[in-house]
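Study the following:
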Amino acid sequence: MSNNKLGSYISKLMTTIVDKEQEEFVKNLALSELTTIKNSLEEFILKNQLKTEEFPDESITEKQLLNEEKTNGK
């Protein structure tokens, strides 16, 4: 469970939002937190996509290594 703390946290937030017995205030807090996480993830993805586009040879090498691992059964 310690390996997937963020996934567990996100699941708990989603459960809170759909729980009909939760107070509206608590649901709004959970939704706000999920939105913050979403924005952080989008920023991270965009930032790292740019790095990959700047160095296309490195991304090709990484893909080749991943394919070799699959082929070699690792």
About this structure: The chain is about 85% helix and 0% strand. Residues 2-72 form one domain. The helical segments are 5-18, 24-54, 56-72.
